[in-house]
What does this fold into?
Amino acid sequence: MARRKKQPQSVHRKNISQIAEKLFMEKGIENTSMNDIANESGYSKASLYVYFKDKEELIAVLVLESMEKLYEYLSKAVNMQGDFYYRYLEICQALFQYHSEYPLYSRMALMNINIDFEGTDFLPEEKDTFRVGEKINELLWRFFREGIESGVLKRDINMAQTTFAMWGMLTGVIQLSFNKEEYINRMIHMQQKEFLDRSFKLLYKAISMEE
Amino acid sequence: MARRKKQPQSVHRKNISQIAEKLFMEKGIENTSMNDIANESGYSKASLYVYFKDKEELIAVLVLESMEKLYEYLSKAVNMQGDFYYRYLEICQALFQYHSEYPLYSRMALMNINIDFEGTDFLPEEKDTFRVGEKINELLWRFFREGIESGVLKRDINMAQTTFAMWGMLTGVIQLSFNKEEYINRMIHMQQKEFLDRSFKLLYKAISMEE
Amino acid sequence: MARRKKQPQSVHRKNISQIAEKLFMEKGIENTSMNDIANESGYSKASLYVYFKDKEELIAVLVLESMEKLYEYLSKAVNMQGDFYYRYLEICQALFQYHSEYPLYSRMALMNINIDFEGTDFLPEEKDTFRVGEKINELLWRFFREGIESGVLKRDINMAQTTFAMWGMLTGVIQLSFNKEEYINRMIHMQQKEFLDRSFKLLYKAISMEE
Amino acid sequence: MARRKKQPQSVHRKNISQIAEKLFMEKGIENTSMNDIANESGYSKASLYVYFKDKEELIAVLVLESMEKLYEYLSKAVNMQGDFYYRYLEICQALFQYHSEYPLYSRMALMNINIDFEGTDFLPEEKDTFRVGEKINELLWRFFREGIESGVLKRDINMAQTTFAMWGMLTGVIQLSFNKEEYINRMIHMQQKEFLDRSFKLLYKAISMEE
DNA sequence: GATGAATGAGGGTTCATTCAT
DNA sequence: CATGAATGAACCCTCATTCAT
It folds into this structure.
């Protein structure tokens, strides 16, 4: 009879990181102990350290995963069929989806997008996160260039700067819409979705040719 | 000779909260222990608890202070002499100054801006923070209304929604400019200041009448 | 105009000890801090230490006071008009009253009743407590002697031993009746009072001549 | 050679609880810190919390153990060969032995004997303690019923009430004999043992038929 | 490879007490 | 005399991490 093949490392890492993610979402990263993760995942506390160097690495992996998802979402949006404006809105939606699915890491991921990793004290996952960040950059870059070349966007914009600024602004308004959802309902009399749609449109005016 | 005046409570609170702020900046709030604050400030750990109910209150005080500064900055900007656009840029500068001086609390303060404080379990400082947040809201509201009424801004904008969206976007781009300062230098070949100035201008186009 | 006479020490001690007693009753001795006593009494924390050497002395005073009350109750009972049995029951009632009024100290007082105070490390109050204890002893002693001489009690009892044994037993059953009041209601279907009356009578049979 | 068997949990719990017991005896429960227990037991403070949820559980375990011992002693006494009186004295001895071995918990155990444990916030050990208390109740109940039915005890006694009263009285006199051992020697000229024997006999007269 | 067992280091908080004024 | 101010010492408890097996 064939010996049952032991699960490879990667399966255990996946098992653990999924549980960790669940717990991080529920209770926050700081308030989730390795103990909690061990209990919930069925692995022993010591085993966690077999598969992950430490808690930090576990987090880094989750951040990386979220980053990869973000790339996937954005990539899909950019490559969609449709005119520029349509795809712009799809990109906004992608960002929105990312923030709703990974509220915890959005901040960390975005911070790590472009770390200067000369240093030696970076986890491999952190470097990978950076690389994915770069890919995202390029993606958006290309998108905006296309906008200019096709005459939809103003000619005079500095592409790199605009891309980055848009990124910051979109991220900011989306985050705000999550943090203050209730306030928006009460004071602006809008659902989060409507608020964001209008905000996305507002921002589009800043870059488009149309008056 | 006059008897040496005892330092009033408030002086000690100031001493302590300043040290706390310094440490929070350096190591993060979670990683700064009351022990650290005691050692650094020269007060005994027990004394800390004479002047602050607990760590939470200490933080709340710092957040409140930062909020009050923000209000001060914005108020000054709004009430400046100059045309609408000039004052808009001043507001952006005010936000920038706030973020550079209170990077830690910017997030917390902004989160607490509009908490629904029916609950009874809020520290006085938290309620005050909320109130200052409301005052800031009104301030910006009035500013934008003025812009519309004077014909500088588009007539069709929803004021509340626009105010809020602008707020989120400005905050987002400023935060990004701090988190990725070095990246901006390297990849966009700009100083943070220049990057932000351009971003502020970019955003202005979204709301102004001019083409 | 006459200068207002300062209150003498004893008044302050009384003020403080009364508040302390109240708090001790409400929250237990261990859970009442000197801070609590200061706040509630209107004296400053430091002033507490002007009037009492330390928390221990404050407790000792309360214990002494309770002891003196007990002596008063017992003395009244013993000196009442009525036959021996009647006065026996009065003594039991006195003990009961004491336990209901001073549940906290009953234990401490009773423990200190006969400390061997050769030692030098006793508070004056503790020595006084001892002395009152001795007076109580004599009181009961005399009572039982009277019972024997009047032919109501068995002749063969060792007076000292019986007195002491009675003391322990009465104390025990009374304490039990307080600790397990609810249980007595539920399982024995009696009110505390009835339970104790019957117990007092039961015990009386052990010493009386009657069959 | 056999692999050395790891010590099972229970051994560590035993080690720790024994040290704790020793320290509790010496310095009192409140005055014994987890630190003390750690130092004395050779375990690290953190390890204590591996084996016991918290200090409360440690205490509850000790109380339960003492209760179980008490049940064991009483059970043995009740089931002894011999007439009723003889077994009565054995029961008294059992109580005495219990108090000498577990002076600290006697009070706590006895308090918990009949808690109304509808509540959900009881430790398993506390519930168990309750259950053992119930078993003790039944044991004594049966013993007294036997006494009545065999004509040794008065017919007119209320069994439940008498059992409980006896319990309180015996406990009271035994506790007194420990607290005041020296005083008894000096003033009554008796050893503790003799004092108790006489007291047990005295109490017996209260319930027996004999004149 | 997997883990039960163990822990050092530190967390926030409280308290009885002292002392300069 | 009275006290505001200050604190050392302790408290219970938690956590990420290690290591022998």
